[in-house]
Design a protein that fits this description.
Number of domains: 1
Strand content: 35-45%
Number of strands: 19
Strand order of the largest sheet: 8-9-10-11-16-15
Structural class: mainly beta
Shape: globular
CATH superfamily: YVTN repeat-like/Quinoprotein amine dehydrogenase
Number of helices: 1
Distance between the termini: 22 Å
CATH architecture: 7 Propeller
CATH class: Mainly Beta
Length: 239
């Protein structure tokens, strides 16, 4: 989006001025940030119908939609970490140290910034949990559970007013979570029991989606919230 163009390679990320006379402004090293469909024995059928192909989401990177804050998020050097860079305050050609968030214990699989750039949501490659962080304090605000079985998350998307978050995966299901009024989210029936020990604790305390919808299984896709009128209550999916 103007005035920046961001290109993610497997282990490096470039930022250019855009669209007039594009010039390289920044480059950052990242952790391995794969793209494509590597062969995976026993995996799902890929979009071309080849057996044993498991499709991974494209290189992980997101640029804040707000023109007032050019915040960029991409995988950090440490397993499960995210890096945040404010392109508006960084000077081109300098080695500005990104802010690091230790988001997950396993590799990051998906990440997205909220429209104003105040929040970042991420999931690991396991795809069972989605975590929400404050980009300013780096504090973890919410932990949302997509499911219990591992899944590849194809996208995370915030609603325009940051009240909801949508997630779509290769399980053929999209999920919508409430971020502002978290009482709308479902919780495990065991949550009423109280403390259940360190093993089941994280499962019981997680918040589950308030709504879900069906998308074609194994078909990589993206989802987004509508804008204007009644549209903010709608989720648009493209597979």
């Amino acid at each position: 989006r103007a005035p920046r163009l961001v290109v993610a390679l497997q282990s490096r990320l470039y930022v250019f001025s855009f669209p007039h006379r594009p010039t390289k402004l920044f480059e950052f090293d990242t952790r391995d940030n794969p793209k494509g469909a590597p062969w995976c024995p026993g995996g799902a059928v890929g979009e071309q119908g080849h057996p044993n192909v498991r499709l991974l989401p494209p290189g992980i990177v997101d640029l804040c939609p707000s023109l007032e804050r050019a915040l960029l998020v991409f995988p950090g050097h440490k397993c499960g970490s995210l890096q945040l860079v404010d392109l508006g305050s960084a000077k081109p050609g300098t080695s500005s140290a990104p802010v690091t968030i230790n988001a997950h214990q396993s590799e990051v699989g998906c990440a997205a910034l909220s429209p104003p750039g105040t929040l970042v949501a991420s999931a690991s490659r396991r795809g069972t949990l989605i975590r929400l962080f404050c980009t300013q304090s780096r504090a973890r605000l919410l932990e949302l559970r997509r499911g219990t079985d591992p899944a590849t998350l194809y996208c995370l998307a915030f609603s325009p007013d940051c009240s909801f978050l949508c997630a779509a995966s290769d399980k053929g299901t999209g999920h919508v979570f409430a971020l502002r009024d978290t009482r709308l989210n479902r919780r495990s029936a065991l949550a009423r029991v109280g403390k259940v020990g360190p093993v089941l604790g994280p499962y019981v305390e997680s918040q589950w989606s308030l709504a879900s919808f069906t998308v074609p299984a194994e078909a990589p896709g993206v989802c987004a919230f509508g804008r204007g009128g009644r549209s903010p209550s709608s989720v648009i999916g493209q597979c």
